[in-house]
Batch of 4 targets.
Target 1
Amino acid sequence: LSRNVASLALVDRVQAGDPAAVARLISRAESGRAEAREALARIYRLAGNAHVVGLTGVPGSGKSTLVAKLTEKLRAHGRKVGILAIDPSSPYSGGAILGDRIRMTEMAVDPGVFIRSMATHGAIGGLARAALDAVDILDVAGFDTVIIETVGVGQDEVEVARASHTTVVVSAPGLGDEIQAIKAGILEIADIHVVSKCDRSDANRTLVDLKQMLMLGMTGEEPEWTPPVIGTSAISGEGIDELVTMIDRHRRIAFETDSGMIRRLSNAVFRLRKTADNLLLERLGSVLADRGMEFPMRLLRREVDPYSLANELIDSSFPREHAHEQDARSKLS
Amino acid sequence: LSRNVASLALVDRVQAGDPAAVARLISRAESGRAEAREALARIYRLAGNAHVVGLTGVPGSGKSTLVAKLTEKLRAHGRKVGILAIDPSSPYSGGAILGDRIRMTEMAVDPGVFIRSMATHGAIGGLARAALDAVDILDVAGFDTVIIETVGVGQDEVEVARASHTTVVVSAPGLGDEIQAIKAGILEIADIHVVSKCDRSDANRTLVDLKQMLMLGMTGEEPEWTPPVIGTSAISGEGIDELVTMIDRHRRIAFETDSGMIRRLSNAVFRLRKTADNLLLERLGSVLADRGMEFPMRLLRREVDPYSLANELIDSSFPREHAHEQDARSKLS
């Protein structure tokens, strides 16, 4: 109870913009403990003002450097910037990402910038549940722009689009996988395309290829917005102003148009689904623990197939039909 | 109905070892259609004879080449070998894996070898549900050894261990991430360690490092089996015989000892959990679809937080407490 009260006290300090309180409440969200729940519920109801920008791209595309440059520029415009760097659980990429990250630490002394690394460990689909809470915490703490940076190694890049208002997809020349990436659905999730490292001589080809691919994929479904392709260079600073302009322009789409409302509603569907998925699977976990080894033993002896057994388990533990009847009855009474 | 009958007819042909029937039933399992369910249920009850070997390692560790060499050797011993190559959904690694794969196609003309690539798309945790069905199909078709090859880029390497009797983890010299890989839990899942490319001059250091790490991690929990470290070379053929010997030896552990039974029971728990997870989430999906946009709109307006809303949704649609009462009542009557 006292930790619950302490978590609620953190909400006031988060609202006042206290970075230590922000960090602590994110940690409590990550630990997933029940005592943070009431605080996070309050945070959720207070949030909704920040512009959430998802930024994704393949390893080596210079995402972290781009985020650093973008943050500098947004700071120059007086914006407070929160950054959530989502590291995949995979041990194989962790090192490189962290190395990139260190270059950004000079910004950590600026109170208008908050950087946090989060792991995806065990999350369904990639983006950790706590990352969505962290976005809200930064929002309530007064950060105008919250950047969610993810590595595009699977499900993450799709999830980040469903958790953000504006999705930036970063490509780089010479990685040789642009076309594959585009084929696999990156095309649809990008609101803004960036080709980084445009100081390189092979960058122009990547720009041209990407633009051609985008023309082929045009569906004309969202006439309010055509995803631009921006070439950037961290060395010359080229394209960063244009990126900020486009991000601002897309913010207006997200908050002031019908298609933006539909996007935000679809984000809410995703958030509800993700939360409900986790909750329901937790309950299934405790049902299975209660049942002991009887069911698995039947499976091991191959008396019954997994599908029929799972069906039997769920029908007896989560009886949907009865639920509907009870629903109907309680509506009648 | 007629497709259901056709699927059931496939089971007889699978039992007779018809490779076309094997391929077709795997496709039906992948498509997840209801008409394959009865056939897959029958397959499951018929299966249980094959030795399932999971083989995982980082990209570039030479897994595909090793699988090819291992398969050659198992064929020389008269074994029929089924190979499931699990490709991550990520577009970024697909190309390289497929390239490796092509080198194996000469074996595709041997009726004692069956190779199939499967995507992980959308599967919880990585390993597709259909992959587990495919193992059973190959088992029923008379393949003595079924190799599940996965790329260790996250959850997969842990899942493959929970779906196999024997797990082989492949490392390679010069990749520089052995230590990170070991830290992250690869150590615990391996029944057999392979260091590939042992013709390279830096291979010995990798072997020594790995052995030292393993000594540090020894818990003495499973005295029946100490995971060996085998150096292999696809060029000289070194180590492949030893690998086959160790795989055979571990097969006996899996099928003839108590710890092997516990492992197979834990695999059954995993299989049941995975199937039940999918089924329950499907039901949640249809509950959410029935509810329409009322719940997401409440979330979008920030009237309620995601956790409370998900709780409300699940309590009204999957009432566990009532289920327990009904259970108790039906036991009494």
Target 2
Amino acid sequence: MMKWLIGVDLGGTQLRVIRTDHRGKIHAQERVPTAAADGPTAVVEQIEALINAVTSAIDRAAITGVGVGAPGPVDPVAGVVLETPNLQGWRNVPLRALLEERITLPVTIGNDANAAALGEWLFGSGQGLHHFVYVTISTGIGGGVIMHDQLLLGRNGGANEIGHMTIQRDGPVCGCGNVGCWEALASGTALARAATLALNRGRDSLIPQLADAEPIKAQHVAAAARRADPLAQRLIAQAGELIGIGMVNLLHIYAPERIAVGGGMAKDWDLFAPHVRRIVVEDAMPPYRTTPIEPARLGGNVGVLGAAALVTQHTGLAAQRDRP
Amino acid sequence: MMKWLIGVDLGGTQLRVIRTDHRGKIHAQERVPTAAADGPTAVVEQIEALINAVTSAIDRAAITGVGVGAPGPVDPVAGVVLETPNLQGWRNVPLRALLEERITLPVTIGNDANAAALGEWLFGSGQGLHHFVYVTISTGIGGGVIMHDQLLLGRNGGANEIGHMTIQRDGPVCGCGNVGCWEALASGTALARAATLALNRGRDSLIPQLADAEPIKAQHVAAAARRADPLAQRLIAQAGELIGIGMVNLLHIYAPERIAVGGGMAKDWDLFAPHVRRIVVEDAMPPYRTTPIEPARLGGNVGVLGAAALVTQHTGLAAQRDRP
């Protein structure tokens, strides 16, 4: 009998639910705008309805479990969503218990960055590796880490806040309150800020034209760089170097076999990659220099497939729950 | 029957071998100056002789195994010492095979920082924890990490080069070639260098008197700070802050239940601790701020007890060795 995983990607704007097989092939999917303003119960009802929709054609006994990837900090052992910046009234929500009550299937909750890492490891660029780091670079920087074939969670699931490594101790203040975090220097937000600053000083560039009266984003800088805009090319080089400094840290800390990069910035990875590579070759110790740093492979499905992959963690998490 | 672990601490100047029970109580020990200039074979013979000495009174069948902690990079899966800065002619030495040939006991080789982490976790300040970080701060900064009750090794045992996180991207060049490493800024060597620099500029201080014509070391700065020397106190505060920045990174990266500090600087931890704590409270995200950061507990025995603790990793490493 075919066995199924259900993946639930709980985003601030969109809720996606899929049914996938154990190889990461999606057989059914549904999506709705998240009822973000209506509190947890409304969202739990949405999730239930979408799970029913993607499982209507199959025997529910063939479902291994349901994985939910949630934004913000999650306690995966307790199954509690601690906080979600984009969902109203979500604080210490026992999402696993709420869902298990309704759907009578084993539920595993995880942080979306950890879920994505697990998804890429099982179904994407990390397949077959023992040590694997997934980095997502978009408005912020997050990630997840597999070492010795295990997702690293740490105390209360708090590990791998890799965006909040200080890489410049006298650097800009980060949203987290710390100073000089990797995220504050090398995220898409930081790149957009650097571009805006340069343009406000009157630098000539294609960027404003490509942004077309919208606020400038990292993707506009990348688009301008593709048209050989000198300011954009310089900004991309700087961003690539800053990304590279954090990558050197990740190589020295985790010694992975591969680093995969997802998130909005990964779409333009070919632009950043040569600058990242230069920093890695200059600054990393010799055994770490050749580690591949490549775009993630699951693209827009990394959220839902990652959520589905969380199901594979269920047994381990249950064991931790039962420990003294 | 009592079961025994043998721990071998292979240092550049001293070779120590102990016999301990499985609770970390030492029942026999031997030490000799390491035959550092005579090549691997001479040292292997020394190790064999000391193991014979500490096991002469017991039945060898009661020995679980032998663990060897070696300085510098080690491939724990292959059992090979890749390089040791202080031992002549040691490059890619298959120490496990060389020893197993002579002593017919299972041998596990590990990097000394990883060994120390494991020793503190099993027998010292990390007892009973699932997630634990050990940091050694002396001439350099190193460490080892236990997560989910497992020593993190990474590809070829290269993980946890925590001294080589960049914390100041435009900082001083490190011995590893990178720029602004934690080790380059916050080690005992860095503190001694900062003191020497200040004194060369004519600052008045007790430090030179305490160093007594020897080159200034971190311990002299600490001793002067204990006598309320203003320059020394300021240097200690700066060093504590720099140590603290790296600690914030470790908290965000590993989310441990405790960080233990060993190495020469740990002897004066009471001086650094308030400055470290201040930075952690200011800069770490709220859930990480209360994590204890405390001196390690095994003191001078951390090397040998850590080496003995490596024996407990034997099964896991053998499994990795056998994997495709």
Target 3
Amino acid sequence: MKTEFELINAICTKSKTRNPKLKIGIGDDCAVICQNSQTDLVVTTDLLIEDIDFKLDWSKPEFVGHKALAASLSDIAAMGAKPVWALISIGVPEKIWASDFVERFYDGWLRLARKFAVELAGGDISRAPDKIVIDSIAAGETRKNRAILRSGAQAGDFVFVTGNLGGAAAGLRLLESGKTKNPASSSLIQKQLCPDPQTKIGLILGEKRLATAMIDLSDGLSSDLRHLCEASKTGAKIYAEKIPIHPKLKSFKEFRADALRLALDGGEDFELLFTANPKNAKKIEKLLPAASRIGEITANAGRIELCQDSKNILIEPRGFRHFGAIENAKL
Amino acid sequence: MKTEFELINAICTKSKTRNPKLKIGIGDDCAVICQNSQTDLVVTTDLLIEDIDFKLDWSKPEFVGHKALAASLSDIAAMGAKPVWALISIGVPEKIWASDFVERFYDGWLRLARKFAVELAGGDISRAPDKIVIDSIAAGETRKNRAILRSGAQAGDFVFVTGNLGGAAAGLRLLESGKTKNPASSSLIQKQLCPDPQTKIGLILGEKRLATAMIDLSDGLSSDLRHLCEASKTGAKIYAEKIPIHPKLKSFKEFRADALRLALDGGEDFELLFTANPKNAKKIEKLLPAASRIGEITANAGRIELCQDSKNILIEPRGFRHFGAIENAKL
């Protein structure tokens, strides 16, 4: 079976960009479009489908609305951009329409939108046969030619992540196993159902020109670091003991042995993974105490290594995947 | 059960626009966003769901791709704008992924995109549980403050439609009844499955400033004329004998008695409905021979009349509707 990436490559070949307005098309967290002499527009779309991306048994409607926008704001943060407006398309089955789902969905969406002054510019409401379908579209702005791409990393750059990792994946496991009563589980479940986009950190990195490349952690560190390295034609080496594992993972014996794996491969943390020139390391540590330096970029294109107990292990992408052998795919 | 319009009104109230960048938000064919000192950006999203908006038994994958983009280009045409870029999100069940559906879908999409120099800027590919889900997002440009809104019609303006009406609805009936073999059916079915957006006409109306208000005919004339009149706080009077009924309708005895009803209430013709100051009527007739003048705007807000055999009948919106008593709803 073809992979999503093979398909995307085929589409890219067929749709070669000719319009100079489109500065970056398929292949980054957002497309980058020339807007005016001072600013560029970045724009992203994320499809969420009931029982694939969320379950009503687990999630309040407000959380579904929050997460739909959060996923898009995370893509905008990953460009170093400021979010400005958004669209939301929603398809709902008739029995969901008759409930308060849609109002509560919008309440959650609007609450997060207000936090970052994002304007609801429009959308589409449609009937769906049996599952809820949501497409979240958001747009942001950067100063001219300042969007932070996946492709800017260079050998020798340091690798950073914001926040801590593995929490959303652990939260998902707790929901799947029904272990939601333990008081320690709430912050993990919150991270899965109601994630915070790293909008402020993305903006600081964009405004201060501190990152050479950036991607958001939606698929998981092992997958997203590979995306960044592939776009930059580099490799990377990261250090197990430096990876910021979500502190609540150690409260659960079933996660203790597995914590590093969850932090490496768990998706949907919506933290930011970025690279920076070593000369900016001090400034980053000072400005962004929530960022951890976890490794460095190497010249070994395609080689992603994990250094653990003084051994180097090649790591494969094992993040969230939609189809068989491959991962979820952003065009 | 609440209507889609009640919901949208509630959302509008909660999300009052404050950002001056967003010139027109919820309530028109596209949102209008300030882009630079010369141009505005218009942007639209359309959700299409298998078995609600298309059926694989009826439609080639290329046609589904074509129609997804055509629906968005039609919205852009209705603003008098030039399409520039687009995004496409698609969710597909695993067995469809294993087929050639997605490649052929993109082939149809890209063929139409090339025709109008629309750039594929990005998208999202996801797994869906059982039905194909598509969200089509497109953006266009107008000269500054030149987007043609639904709200600009004034009493005394003439009402025009492009092309001819009822063809897509008749095509749908032929597909539903399996009557696809009659040679006369092909152009009706084509109108349903592979509609042409009126991009060139939209652009002419925009560039020459000939229309006071415009909307695309996606829901049906009776519904879309009401949308336009509500936005403009006017009424309208249209003349049955002036409505351009699709010429192939008379080839089918089952459509002959019903032809006017199909033209009034049938959706998805993707023609343009626009209003113009009478002083521009001659210019419009000359520049746009495909446009028919079907009536005029009146000061009777909310009153939409059909004049037939010298009698005036109030017409109610009977176009495509997603939920119970109400219509499909564009935010």
Target 4
Amino acid sequence: MVLGGGGFIGTNLCKRLVASGFTVGAFGHSPRFPQELRGVDWHEGDFSNAAAVAAAVGTSEVVFHLVGTTPQPANIDMAGDLERHVIPSLALMDICRQAGVRRIVFVSSGGTVYGKPRDVPTPETAATDPIAAYGISKLAVEKYLALFEHLHGLDYRVLRITNPFGPFQVPFKSQGVIAAVVSRTLREERVEVWGDGSVVRDFIFVDDVVDALLSAATDSGNGRIFNVGTGEGRSLLEVISLVERLLDRKVRIDFKPGRALDVPVSVVAIDRARALLGWSPKTSFETGLQRTVDWWRTRPTYRAL
Amino acid sequence: MVLGGGGFIGTNLCKRLVASGFTVGAFGHSPRFPQELRGVDWHEGDFSNAAAVAAAVGTSEVVFHLVGTTPQPANIDMAGDLERHVIPSLALMDICRQAGVRRIVFVSSGGTVYGKPRDVPTPETAATDPIAAYGISKLAVEKYLALFEHLHGLDYRVLRITNPFGPFQVPFKSQGVIAAVVSRTLREERVEVWGDGSVVRDFIFVDDVVDALLSAATDSGNGRIFNVGTGEGRSLLEVISLVERLLDRKVRIDFKPGRALDVPVSVVAIDRARALLGWSPKTSFETGLQRTVDWWRTRPTYRAL
């Protein structure tokens, strides 16, 4: 059962699970690419509706919890973020416990839970001092998962994913900068960039994220929290320059003031996932970006919807 | 303004503030010892009522946030704990920001935010892996305070207080083990103890806690989070044995099964508060316990109410 299965990572995960022969259900608001969810038992609903979540979870063996808010709205309405994300996650844990779900795999945020990191690449053991409400609520869910395992034996894994990109990502509420740069440039539109483009991010191709999710679903080790990134950072300006090369077209940028919630550098250490999940990213940034560009070129008018 | 001013620490803090000549307001549900709050401008209200909190905060310079749930109910209703504690704390931060409050001093939990500590005594930099929902919500408020300083410049201090004891503490929902042991033994009643009494706690006399709160209200250093304890642990059985000596009476114990939310050892390192707040505990455990016993002896029928 993929909660948030209609989003970017969810769509990619569902496709892979179906292709691998699993019985797959998904839950969420109207999926962005319904035609891609062939073979998926789709449950339409709001994550705050515990009865709907319980019906979707049913007798699932593994629940992927990919339901997320986005960084900017969370900062504007922090209480609402708790109400829409953390409280329903607590209800989900109760549902999974009662339904005998074998494991919850939770998608957390490698880019926000650490805040301004002292060590780069940042290991899982680093201090967690988010400068965005989004990171605080992700962290709270992580802590409650650990508590549910302690109190009730509910098994879980947390993946702190950095900046994923690839097919089926559409620019949405300031998330998905690569999708925005590629699609807007193909449409000959200008791109808004917060800050001067010097922020460094750990961009990871979505196929590698899906690999990590599958490893986390079946892993039998003692690790619980894993960074999922590439361990390598690149600045937004470097990304833009590579997009220009691949599209053979100038990216036209409107620089906006930097945002308080953006850390200057976010790159994670992935030694733990390598060692304990046997996972490592396989797609070079250039290859991933080429595939992303190729996907956008297949979209009529370079629009997602 | 002392939010939660009618409780155990709140009553002690209010008395000290009044005695020191400050203009003192307090907010909360009906105080347990109203006659002790002479000179305090009392505001009756529920912490969830943002308008009532805003009216109480008014033009206060410093807000002490002592409103707390208790460990056991928080574990039973984790979502309710978020709704009653964390979400109103977010509203409080907004209120303080708009009212121009100079600083929030927040009482966090030295006994639960760390979970099962790897290092004892535990420093503030240790991992925070609570095994009680109470610790998770305290931690969330700490993180939001840091975020509010980052976003809005709202100043704050966090005191992670261990196990306070002393006058005006009454046994309540399994908090206040010393108060329970002393008062029930004076009344010749049996005492319930969770587990075998081997749990080790860092008991700190409430006058020393009040000293720390005052230091944190005026400190101008760069530290934000401070452990407040004695740095020394003693087991519940040791405490009981000292109570027996002071009362010259046998404590009759009903041992109950241990609780999943109790860590075996909780003792904090207080080097940071010593160095940055210039604070240290002044009252020996024996002296504090004697004063607690003396206080209970002044209560008619050894009852608080």
